[in-house]
Specification:
The complex is a heterodimer of chains A (about 200) and B (about 210). By secondary structure, chain A is α/β, with parallel strands linked by helices. In chain A, strand 1 and strand 2 form a beta hairpin. The longest helix of chain A has 20 residues. Chain A has six helices and eight strands. Chain A is globular and about 55 Å long. Chain A starts with a strand and ends with a helix. In chain B, helix 4 runs antiparallel to helix 5, helix 5 runs parallel beside helix 7 and helix 5 packs parallel to helix 8. The chains are: A alpha/beta (about 200), B mainly alpha (about 210). At the A-B interface, strand 4 and helix 6 of A face helix 1 and helix 3 of B.
Chain lengths: ~200, ~210
């Protein structure tokens, strides 16, 4: 659950972007940071390998200002998508309040999406959290590649593979072009805050 | 004290989010291209190729990239700023085609950023020359920075070229076609040297294998 510090009058909400490697998680945060840099007024922290892959995690804090005298802080994280970094993924998920699952729309990445979602379920379970209960938004990324003749999974297939049971809100997106990046973020923040309200009332 | 969590929190957060991200649509409209009759199709084609480099770098993709830059070069030959951008894109493209996965980690990123600046200048006809040159200068600085990083390895081995000077920090960059060609030649020499070193290493490895 979100960290509410009554003494410092601060509410911290942690949102994690999860998904297979090379799916566009970091690109989502980079777009937000680049586009709204002047208003966000914080630094994005990212640790990458030589090959431009996320090694540990990306972190972007967003301040929403004071509401009823409390500072609302949204902390955005990404996890490393590569299979071998599961310990880091699990660590980043500690205390998570909401998840954006960034699926790769490329047909060749179908299996990776499914495995990554399963991995998310397992890692959440390690913290006694259910993937069916946690605020979750599905983002079907890289839709722009269709215009280049690259074979993509249809939205229906992605829904069937990943979202038939979860029934989470799903958005088609292109993180590289910024399409539906902010919409995804707004959706997950609102879902998470609404969930927080329900839990604390 | 009023409780922080209440029915109004979500609606208040929603308002804040709208405010935080409010100008996105407006900015996109303000930044809408003023194409003034320019044929943007080659640019759009090049953009698609640049985007595809995010996930795949092959000879075929790089070949398309280079032929598309050539296509654009013909249409921009009378515009010095655009021509210089195309020269940089072409140089980066050739470098990435040769090195592929072994390219400097910033090379693809720089190519994307250079294309982004090129697109901006290309699409906004009527922008004052000073502003266009300012965008170009910024790209050139990044290009030179990468070039320096690529050249760093041979220099460390004592192969620094005669007459090569380090730029003073903050120095204004003045670029010409000749200078750009020189950069290209230097990159070619660097690549050739690298290949020779690799070949020599392979030869020694083979000899060692034969001996054992």
């Amino acid at each position: 659950m979100a960290f509410v510090n009554l003494k410092n009058k601060e509410v911290q909400v942690k949102i994690v972007y999860y998904g297979p490697g090379r799916g566009g998680k970091t690109t989502n945060l980079e777009y937000i940071y680049k586009k709204f840099n002047s208003r966000i007024k914080t630094e994005m922290i990212t640790i990458k390998t030589q090959g431009d892959r996320t090694l540990f995690f990306d972190f972007l804090p967003l301040g929403l200002g004071k509401i009823k005298g409390h500072e609302i802080k949204i902390q955005l994280y990404t996890v490393p998508g590569q299979v071998k970094y599961n310990a880091t993924r699990r660590l980043v998920l500690r205390g998570v309040d909401g998840v954006v699952f960034v699926a790769d729309s490329m047909a060749v990445r179908r299996k990776h999406n499914i495995l990554s979602l399963k991995n998310l379920q397992e890692n959440l379970a390690a913290y006694n959290k259910s993937i069916f209960k946690i605020p979750l938004v599905m983002q079907y990324n890289k839709r722009d590649l269709a215009s280049q003749g690259i074979p993509l999974l249809s939205v229906a297939t992605l829904q069937k593979d990943l979202n038939s049971k979860l029934k989470a809100p799903a958005l088609e997106a292109s993180a590289l072009e910024g399409k539906n990046v902010t919409e995804t973020l707004k959706k997950i923040i609102l879902l998470t805050v609404a969930s927080l309200e329900r839990e604390l009332q | 004290m009023e409780p922080i969590i209440g029915k109004t929190l979500t609606s208040e957060v929603e308002k804040r989010l709208e405010s935080l991200f409010r100008e996105e649509a407006e900015e996109q409209l303000e930044g809408a291209p003023d194409q003034k009759g320019k044929d943007v199709q080659p640019l759009e084609d090049l953009k698609s190729i640049v985007l595809s480099l995010e996930w795949e770098i092959t000879d075929e993709v790089m070949g398309k990239f280079l032929s598309q830059t050539e296509e654009l070069r013909k249409g921009c030959k009378d515009d010095k700023v655009l021509s210089t951008f195309i020269q940089m894109l072409s140089a980066l493209g050739k470098y990435i085609r040769r090195h592929k996965g072994g390219s400097h980690p910033d090379a693809v990123k720089l190519l994307s950023a250079t294309f982004e600046s090129f697109e901006k200048v290309f699409k906004t006809a009527g922008t004052p020359d000073a502003e266009r040159k300012q965008i170009l200068d910024k790209s050139i600085k990044e290009f030179l920075k990468l070039k320096k990083a690529i050249m760093h390895k041979p220099r460390a081995k004592g192969t620094k070229r005669e007459g090569q000077k380090d730029m003073e920090p903050g120095a204004r960059v003045v670029i010409s076609r000749e200078l750009m060609e020189q950069f290209l030649n230097e990159i070619k020499v660097f690549i050739k040297t690298e290949f020779e070193e690799i070949k020599a290493e392979l030869r020694s490895w083979k000899e060692a294998q034969e001996r054992s």
